[in-house]
Design brief:
- The chain is mainly alpha-helical.
- The protein has one domain (7-105): Cytochrome Bc1 Complex, Chain D, domain 2.
- The protein is built from 5 helices and no strands.
- α1 crosses α5 and α3 packs antiparallel against α5 (94-105).
- The protein is elongated.
Protein backbone atom coordinates (compact mmCIF):
# COMPACT_ATOMS: atom_id res chain seq x y z
CA UNK A 1 0.00 0.00 0.00
CA UNK A 2 1.50 3.39 -0.97
CA UNK A 3 2.22 6.08 1.64
CA UNK A 4 -0.72 8.55 1.95
CA UNK A 5 1.06 11.80 1.03
CA UNK A 6 -2.29 13.61 0.84
CA UNK A 7 -2.55 13.17 4.60
CA UNK A 8 0.85 14.76 5.19
CA UNK A 9 0.03 18.03 3.43
CA UNK A 10 -2.64 19.16 5.92
CA UNK A 11 -0.46 18.01 8.80
CA UNK A 12 2.52 19.96 7.53
CA UNK A 13 0.41 23.10 7.19
CA UNK A 14 -0.85 22.56 10.71
CA UNK A 15 2.73 22.34 11.95
CA UNK A 16 3.64 25.57 10.16
CA UNK A 17 0.59 27.42 11.48
CA UNK A 18 1.25 26.20 15.03
CA UNK A 19 4.91 27.14 14.84
CA UNK A 20 3.97 30.67 13.80
CA UNK A 21 0.93 31.30 15.99
CA UNK A 22 1.93 29.72 19.31
CA UNK A 23 4.81 32.13 20.02
CA UNK A 24 2.54 35.05 19.08
CA UNK A 25 -0.18 33.75 21.38
CA UNK A 26 2.32 33.40 24.21
CA UNK A 27 3.52 36.97 23.63
CA UNK A 28 -0.06 38.22 23.62
CA UNK A 29 -0.76 36.39 26.88
CA UNK A 30 2.37 37.83 28.48
CA UNK A 31 1.46 41.34 27.30
CA UNK A 32 -2.08 41.00 28.67
CA UNK A 33 -0.74 39.73 31.99
CA UNK A 34 1.63 42.69 32.15
CA UNK A 35 -1.23 45.10 31.45
CA UNK A 36 -3.32 43.44 34.16
CA UNK A 37 -0.49 43.92 36.66
CA UNK A 38 -0.11 47.55 35.63
CA UNK A 39 -3.87 48.15 35.88
CA UNK A 40 -3.53 47.94 39.68
CA UNK A 41 -1.81 51.32 39.53
CA UNK A 42 -4.49 53.09 37.48
CA UNK A 43 -6.73 54.06 40.42
CA UNK A 44 -4.08 56.39 41.82
CA UNK A 45 -1.53 56.95 39.04
CA UNK A 46 -3.99 57.22 36.15
CA UNK A 47 -4.50 55.24 33.00
CA UNK A 48 -1.16 54.12 31.60
CA UNK A 49 0.54 55.85 34.54
CA UNK A 50 -0.50 59.40 33.66
CA UNK A 51 -2.20 61.44 36.37
CA UNK A 52 -4.25 64.55 35.77
CA UNK A 53 -2.49 67.89 35.91
CA UNK A 54 -2.14 69.20 39.44
CA UNK A 55 -2.56 65.80 41.08
CA UNK A 56 -0.68 65.15 44.33
CA UNK A 57 -0.01 61.62 43.02
CA UNK A 58 2.91 61.49 40.59
CA UNK A 59 2.69 60.25 37.04
CA UNK A 60 4.78 57.12 36.56
CA UNK A 61 4.56 56.80 32.78
CA UNK A 62 7.96 56.93 31.15
CA UNK A 63 9.99 56.64 34.34
CA UNK A 64 13.17 54.61 33.90
CA UNK A 65 12.71 50.90 34.63
CA UNK A 66 15.54 50.65 37.16
CA UNK A 67 14.27 53.72 39.03
CA UNK A 68 10.78 52.21 39.25
CA UNK A 69 12.12 48.89 40.55
CA UNK A 70 14.26 50.65 43.15
CA UNK A 71 11.35 52.79 44.35
CA UNK A 72 8.98 49.83 44.58
CA UNK A 73 11.58 47.88 46.58
CA UNK A 74 12.08 50.89 48.86
CA UNK A 75 8.33 51.09 49.49
CA UNK A 76 8.23 47.34 50.11
CA UNK A 77 11.08 47.30 52.65
CA UNK A 78 9.88 50.52 54.31
CA UNK A 79 12.95 52.61 53.51
CA UNK A 80 10.83 55.07 51.49
CA UNK A 81 7.94 56.66 53.40
CA UNK A 82 4.48 56.26 51.93
CA UNK A 83 0.81 56.52 52.74
CA UNK A 84 -0.40 53.37 50.97
CA UNK A 85 2.41 52.22 48.68
CA UNK A 86 4.13 50.24 51.43
CA UNK A 87 0.95 48.18 51.84
CA UNK A 88 0.43 47.70 48.09
CA UNK A 89 4.00 46.66 47.35
CA UNK A 90 4.09 44.06 50.11
CA UNK A 91 1.67 41.97 48.05
CA UNK A 92 3.77 42.11 44.88
CA UNK A 93 6.36 39.62 43.74
CA UNK A 94 9.69 40.71 42.26
CA UNK A 95 8.44 39.46 38.88
CA UNK A 96 5.32 41.66 39.14
CA UNK A 97 7.41 44.69 40.10
CA UNK A 98 9.72 44.09 37.13
CA UNK A 99 6.77 43.62 34.79
CA UNK A 100 5.13 46.85 35.93
CA UNK A 101 8.40 48.75 35.69
CA UNK A 102 8.85 47.49 32.12
CA UNK A 103 5.30 48.48 31.25
CA UNK A 104 5.48 52.01 32.64
CA UNK A 105 8.97 52.64 31.28
CA UNK A 106 7.59 51.92 27.80
CA UNK A 107 4.79 54.52 28.16
CA UNK A 108 5.17 58.05 26.88
CA UNK A 109 5.76 60.62 29.58
Amino acid sequence: MPFPFKTLLPLSWCAVVCAVTLPAAAQDAARLHQQADAAMCANCHGTEGRTVKGSAVPSIAGLPRDYMVAQMKAFKDGSRPATVMHQITKGLTDAQVASMADYFAAQKR
